[in-house]
Design brief:
heterodimer, A: alpha+beta, six-stranded antiparallel beta sheet, five-stranded antiparallel beta sheet, flat, B: alpha/beta, seven-stranded mixed beta sheet, two-stranded antiparallel ribbon, 11 helices, 33% helix
């Protein structure tokens, strides 16, 4: 580990020292002369001086200054520490320095770097803008409107997370969008006049091929209603495969708002016997036709028949689940998928599925598509769309739209902002002040001063001269929603405290806490605790963590923290090629992301040992994944914990298809990516970027007929410039070679047509060596080896969660806290909650 | 099974029977597939008025440089295999080889500096610092006369991270200007009239917006007093955005009497998605079509367009462009790379064709539209990702003084900085300057 040789004591001493600025400003010349100069002279200067120093690294003080306040300089020094720590330098054949000398060099460098971080106040997050998901959640709580921020520019991640204050920029385009969004959100939230009349439109689609069937709803609306190119059984449209959607289109709802869409649907799931029976009929017919054409080849036709039948008899993909619906809404020209889900319920027990979605008055449509995929394989894809072949069928008899729905009138979004008050009817100006005071208190997440309210009130007053009350009050409300106090987690300090670490106010602390665990503003309880100052009490803080993690809002931590830590947002960016990995379909893709999220949630919410993330005797899966992982007895689309034996080869993050596919490259596995992933995300070791000119691994190797990916990488590593890093990286990936690029288990690497495994194809070699020389075998070996170094994993996990919680990159000065977090977890059953508690109680979390 | 009965012979069955005939051999997903439906968009007959314009088109990950650089130079040069695609436009573009930005870091930070020529590590105390991009200097001048000073297009929206920029444009402070990747949103911003009714109401809306901007500006000044240095830098970004938005509102007030140009949606596949392998070619085409419409209606004269972000890229049909750029000299991968290069050039050629077919004053639109096309890195002969000898084409602008139809070959170790090309473009846009970044002058031979 990178920091193993650092004297943690040095850092702690520094952290406790009141003023370090002198030390940095001057640069510690005397220390340099005493420690560094002699070391460089005896061990480095021979190669690293002159016109062309080796590796373009020069020890000349003019080129390697001791001004640690410059990040470029600091990163050069960091490299010195790295090569010394890893024993890369001095080269093995040269005279080796004694450990003490190395230690004092590293201590000196560390001390300088930490001091610089402290002076530059890098231990504090930089004024942090709400990212897209925080904005969405905050609006939902502040106003009650479900706003889709995907129109905003993507937020760039730094150090792995998109909540890094330094990286979250703000441009004029952002501001324009914030202003537009605020207007839109308030237009939706605040209402005038009577509750709009509701409509209820009921559709009973039938199949038709001319697409001209319309249903007259009212004088303005005469939409097309179509059951697609499907089959009809009485009132039911039967969808056997994707052959046109059941839909209604070309209508406009009378008022924009939330509408309920219902669909009445059922499923018919054929069993294996039916699959075999229908396949046999089709294949038999093919065989007969072939025989008629080429009687001399009858023997081969029979063999083909038998081979293909074996596929239909044995392959797990025919253990069908229920049919699936894809429900989309089209507004204006753009259709958008609103939901994809399994349809449980036989035709005797059909179910009504209900969705509340927003319609505007644009020309609209709603569509229901058949979305069950049978993974295509060469044996079956030509016949799986034949009506005579048994596959799950989706049955729909009606659907309807009803709305706009309001839980009350005026709706909550309205009365939350424009609440009842004695002044409402009698003193409009005073009422406007009350409205603004309450809204600003919530939006700014802290108490508001009267001058702040006055400024906003004057916006209202001048607008009120020409506008209705509601239109006039929108102006200051928009200003609030575009102000820096709302858009940023602003943590102003009193003027005198700006250049040293000071405790946050209790409201600032409440905000940090709620954006950490909920990606959202503090709720009423947190706000009250902030008002009373009680939130600073350790016990209260721990109680709040407990409460907050139990809340559904903690899903944000799963999505945003685990999702980014594990790279789940990358799933599907470069998916396994469909011809090579036919098992990988849309439903699977959704499922593998949900699996990793559910797995993390399971461990978080049930206070399980965090080491389960490395290796567990359970998985958290749905029916689709059970089929994919070859695990029996799981029915239904919901994710649940399932115990698995070691022979299943599943359990732990590295066995999950999400990670296994994102670390592959679509056509083959990439042990390099997998090794790097494990190093970076589970062991906290950054192997660095590839050197320029490293080149790509050869797709084919002359002289070797079936060169496995492993073999090709081994050849690559014979180059010196590659070996240095790849000796560390690749072996970790080799241990995972039993999982193919889609995450399926395999015993051989396939070299047949489209990657099929032939009898003589090479057996996977998953034996490997850890960076410290431990010999391991396969995924279980890798998991055990990581667990044997549990401090690396725990430290990595702690660093990631701290980075996310603090909203900044960690520096050397955070290392003592990471160490302490490891120790703390060990004393507290290794739970994620104990780590969370440790972080929110840490000094860095509570100071600015 | 009940569904075996109740059947009617529908169109589906007929189609399916036809489909059965074309079974197995269709799939060859490993090579770039360029099979999407061609666009039905028709270029217009003539443009409204002649103006100088520029568009900078960026392709990531370099090209197959072996098949790209012509073997001979001068005006009698012979096409390289890749450049064959541009045959019909030979007299309208120049091949520039051997050039590069001397300060460029190489690797995948090319898009960050392609139009700025900055040394990203130059500023002491900052991990990353960029400077104004050439297009923004042109936008400063021409933005006074068009509804939009400039447009930023990309296959990923936003700015991207430092060193992996999704945008080619950087403002006067070196801050990235976020890009748009949705043809639909772009079209709406440019051509769909703002909803608010009459003139008075629109002006009222602008006045209100100004009062809001005033208010939040003074609020942020109050906040600023109690922030540390790092926070203050971040808040400056906010304040400068407020000021620029104020300026933009001021500009819009000037445009209130000018309706947005009336452009029909006909033939534009505005729903195309940049990240969708099937949509990819359509998306590139429709973005260029909207760029064309923007120019023809004079909505802006300055566009930057990052076709794919660095270290990513979808090629023509979802291939892993980045992976292929690490070809290590492998012939198979190089040939796939060349296929992507040709695909990209075919889209460029189509765009040039649209401009050329549109009459403008005494010639056609292409003759007043400068197109800079290229990558910020060279994937090299062995996949080395070098900042030297980056693939560059300069096209169009004959009426502005460009002399095309040749290959200007420079020594990769001793060449004028690429900024000289950018300075040449700026001058031809009418920007009165002799300086841009590290330029030593305009590029001899280009004009």
């Amino acid at each position: 580990m990178r920091f193993c040789l650092f004297s943690i004591l040095t850092i702690i001493t520094l952290l406790m020292r009141a003023d370090t600025s002198e030390l940095v400003a001057a640069g510690d010349q005397s220390g340099y002369d005493r420690v560094l100069a002699p070391f460089f002279k005896s061990h480095c200067n021979q190669c690293h001086t002159g016109e062309k120093p080796k590796g373009s690294f020069a020890t000349d003080p003019k080129l390697l200054s001791i001004d640690f306040s410059d990040p470029a300089t600091r990163s050069k020094w960091r490299e010195v520490v790295n090569v010394l720590n890893s024993h890369e330098m001095p080269p093995k054949k040269e005279k080796q320095p004694d450990t003490k000398a190395v230690a004092s060099v590293i201590d000196w460098i560390t001390e300088q770097a930490v001091a610089a971080e402290l002076v530059k106040r890098e231990r504090s997050p930089i004024l942090r803008r709400l990212n897209r998901s925080e904005y969405k959640n905050t609006i939902a709580d502040l106003v009650g409107v479900d706003f889709d921020p995907s129109v905003f520019p993507q937020d760039p991640p730094a150090a792995g997370f998109d909540n890094n204050g330094g990286a979250l920029t703000l441009s004029p385009l952002h501001l324009e969008m914030y202003l537009g969004a605020a207007q839109q959100i308030l237009d939706r939230a605040l209402v005038e006049g009577e509750q709009p009349k509701m409509i209820k439109w009921h559709f009973e689609p039938t199949i038709n091929s001319n697409d001209r069937v319309r249903k007259r709803l009212d004088p303005k609306n005469n939409p097309l209603v179509n059951g697609g190119q499907n089959l009809q059984e009485g009132a039911w449209v039967v969808m056997h495969h994707a052959a046109g959607s059941v839909h209604a289109r070309d209508f406009r709802v009378p008022t924009a708002g939330i509408y309920t869409v219902r669909v009445h649907a059922a499923t018919r799931i054929p069993n294996r016997a039916k699959v075999v029976e229908t396949a046999s009929k089709i294949l038999k017919k093919r065989q007969e036709e072939q025989d008629a054409k080429q009687p001399e080849r009858a023997k081969w036709h029979l063999q083909a028949f038998e081979n293909d039948m074996k596929h239909f008899e044995e392959d797990r993909r025919y253990d069908y689940g229920p049919a699936r619906i894809k429900f989309s809404q089209q507004l204006g020209p753009t259709p958008k998928v609103m939901a994809e889900f399994d349809v449980p319920g036989s035709i005797d027990q059909p179910k009504t599925h209900e969705f509340n979605i927003r319609f505007t008055t644009e020309s609209a449509g709603i569509f229901f598509d058949y979305a069950y995929t049978i993974p295509s394989a060469l044996e079956n894809f030509w016949m799986q769309n034949r009506d005579t072949f048994a596959r799950p069928e989706l049955l729909i008899d009606w659907f309807e739209i009803e709305g706009p729905i309001y839980e009350s009138w005026p709706p909550q979004t309205h009365s939350r902002i424009l609440f009842d008050s004695p002044n409402k009817a009698t003193n409009e100006q005073e009422y406007a002040r009350e409205v603004l005071a309450r809204f600003m208190r919530n939006a700014y997440r802290r108490p508001i001063s009267p001058t702040e309210i006055d400024a906003k009130l004057s916006l209202y007053s001048s607008a009120r001269k020409e506008k209705t009350f509601i239109e006039a009050i929108k102006l200051p409300l928009i200003a609030v929603m575009a102000s820096p106090n709302f858009l940023f987690l602003a943590e102003p300090q009193s003027n005198s405290a700006l250049d040293k670490a000071t405790p946050l106010t209790s409201h600032q602390l409440a905000s940090r806490l709620s954006y950490f665990l909920w990606s959202n503003m503090p709720d009423e309880e947190l706000s009250k605790l902030a008002d009373s100052g009680k939130i600073r009490e350790k016990l209260i803080l721990a109680q709040q963590v407990d409460r907050m993690l139990k809340s559904p809002k903690a899903e944000a931590l799963v999505r945003n923290f685990a999702g980014q830590w594990l790279g789940l947002r990358d799933v599907g960016n470069n998916p396994p090629a469909s011809d090579l990995y036919p098992q990988y379909d849309r439903h699977l893709e959704l499922s593998i992301v949900a699996e990793s999220e559910s797995f993390f949630r399971e461990i978080l919410l049930n206070d399980l040992d965090a080491r389960n993330l490395i290796k567990s005797d359970f998985v958290v899966i749905n029916e689709r994944l059970a089929r994919f992982y070859n695990i029996n007895g799981v029915k239904g689309d919901q994710f649940r914990k399932v115990a698995v034996p070691p022979s299943a080869h599943r359990g732990g993050i590295v066995t999950q298809a999400s990670i296994l596919t994102t670390t592959s490259n679509g056509t083959r596995t990439s042990p390099v990516k997998r090794g790097t992933w494990v190093l970076k995300n589970l062991m906290g070791i950054d192997p660095g970027l590839p050197v320029a000119n490293a080149g790509e691994i050869a797709p084919k190797v002359p002289g070797i007929d079936k060169a496995t990916v492993r073999k090709r990488l081994e050849i690559h590593r014979q180059l010196d410039q590659c070996a240095r890093c790849h000796n560390k990286i690749d072996p970790l990936g080799f241990a995972l070679e039993n999982f193919n690029a889609a995450g399926e288990w395999r015993d051989q690497e396939g070299f047949g047509y489209k990657g099929r495994v032939g009898k003589n194809d090479p057996v996977i070699d998953s034996s490997s060596i850890m960076p410290d020389g431990t010999e391991i075998s396969g995924v279980a070996g890798l998991q055990d080896a990581i667990l044997a170094k549990e401090d690396l994993f725990l430290g990595c996990l702690a660093s990631k969660l701290m980075t996310y919680a603090y909203g900044r990159e960690l520096g050397l000065s955070d290392q003592p806290a990471v160490k302490a977090a490891i120790a703390d977890m060990k004393q507290n059953k290794y739970t994620l909650k104990s780590l969370t508690n440790f972080i929110v109680a840490s000094e860095a979390f509570a100071t600015k | 099974m009940p569904s075996f009965f109740h059947r009617s012979l529908s169109r589906r069955h007929v189609l399916r029977a036809a489909g059965a005939a074309l079974t197995l051999p269709l799939l060859e997903a490993m090579t770039p597939s360029i099979s999407a439906a061609p666009s039905t968009f028709k270029p217009w007959d003539k443009s409204a008025a002649p103006h100088p314009r520029m568009i900078c088109c960026y392709i990531p990950n370099g090209v197959n440089i072996i098949e790209w650089v012509p073997a001979t130079s001068g005006d009698k040069y012979t096409f390289s295999p890749t450049l064959e695609v541009m045959k019909e436009h030979r007299s309208d573009f120049t091949v520039l080889s051997g050039m590069g930005h001397p300060n460029s870091q190489g690797g995948h930070s090319g898009a960050d500096t392609w139009l700025t020529a900055a040394n990203l590590k130059a500023k002491p105390g900052a991990d990353y610092s960029n400077s104004i991009s050439a297009d923004q200097l042109a936008a400063e001048l021409h933005g006074k006369q068009t509804r939009f000073p400039s447009l930023q297009l990309s296959d990923m929206s936003g700015t991207g991270g430092s060193g992996h920029s999704h945008t080619l444009s950087f403002d006067i402070n070196g801050s990235p200007l976020p890009a748009e990747n949705s043809p639909r949103r772009l079209f709406e911003r440019l051509f769909v009239p703002d909803s608010a009714g009459d003139r008075a109401a629109t002006l009222k809306r602008y006045a209100e917006r100004k009062s809001i901007l005033d208010d939040i500006a003074s609020e942020s000044k109050a906040l600023d007093k109690n922030l540390g240095a790092n926070d203050r830098r971040k808040l400056d970004e906010y304040l400068s955005s407020v000021r620029q938005t104020e300026k933009q509102v001021g500009r819009l007030q000037g445009w209130v009497d000018v309706p947005k140009p009336n452009v029909p949606e006909t033939g534009l596949q505005l729903g195309s998605q940049p990240g969708n392998a099937h949509d990819r070619p359509m998306w590139l085409d429709v973005m260029l079509e909207v760029a064309y419409l923007t120019f023809i209606t004079d909505a802006t004269r300055v566009i930057t367009f990052e076709w794919s972000r660095e270290a990513g890229g979808h090629g023509g049909g979802g291939e892993n462009h980045h992976e292929l750029s690490h070809h290590g000299g492998d012939a198979g991968m190089l040939s796939k790379l060349a296929t992507i290069d040709k695909f990209h050039l075919s889209r460029l050629a189509r765009f040039m064709g649209m401009l050329k077919s549109t009459a403008e004053a005494d010639s056609n639109m292409l003759d007043r539209t400068m197109i800079l096309y290229g990558s910020g890195m060279n994937s090299g002969k062995g996949g080395e990702h070098s900042p030297k000898n980056i693939p560059t084409l300069m096209a169009g602008g004959a009426k502005l003084g460009f002399k095309h139809g040749k290959h200007l070959a420079f020594d990769a170790d001793k060449h004028p900085p690429l900024s000289n090309v950018l300075l040449t473009m700026l001058q031809k846009m009418g920007v009165e300057t002799n300086k841009f970044a590290d330029a030593t002058g305009t590029l001899t031979g280009l004009v």
